Amino acid sequence: MITTISSPKQSLTFLQFIEGLPDEEGRYELVNGEIMRILATREHEDRADLIAKLFDREVERLSLNYRVSGRIVVRTLTQDGKEQARHPDVSVVDKAQWEAQPQAYSAMLDPLQLVVEVVSTNWEDDYIDKLDEYQRLGILEYWIVDYLALGSRNYLGNPKVPTVFVYLLDENGVYQVKPYRGEERIVSRTFPELAIAAEQILKILPGD
Q1: Does residue 196 surpass a pLDDT of 80?
Q2: Contact 171/192 with Cβ under 8 angstroms?
Q3: Residue 165 Cα distances to 34, 134, 150, 152, angstroms
Q4: CATH number where 161 lies
Q5: Number of domains in the chain
Q6: Residue 16 within a domain
């Protein structure tokens, strides 16, 4: 769930957003010039945590030069050039990119390697707005985890089925999407040896 916590007379910029974040703990985004607080359910957080752990294991197992985090904010642009600040549920960033400015805030201006959004009631944000903004920024890989099948039938079929969508940026800077359901193994460009079925994320099987 997303709630508005500010109604500025003038739309905030990304820098103003970073400098004016509330002291209260939580996740925040800049959407249409306003600071929005994101409140997630425990189920939502469980899936995000599981995905982050799976990615971390791959990074450690293969000694990959990535950093996995759930605290990174990324600057995006809308189609009309308006600055937004998005806070993905899980982010994967190149370590060299992260360590280049050790004193900077955990806010990124450059494309990340991979971001994951776990779908909540405002599902259009993930399927439409963030998809467009992440593609525009050039994020190489984008996962949408719709474990409650909240998206429309255009995406999930009829009847609607919980799905993990993996969007990969092609050579023309356009996302190509592949849906994964049930026992289908998710194929990731960032983690090509990742051995995980969609249902492990969608259902969180015992022992995970």
Answers
A1: yes
A2: no
A3: 28, 14, 13, 13
A4: 3.90.1570.10
A5: 1
A6: no
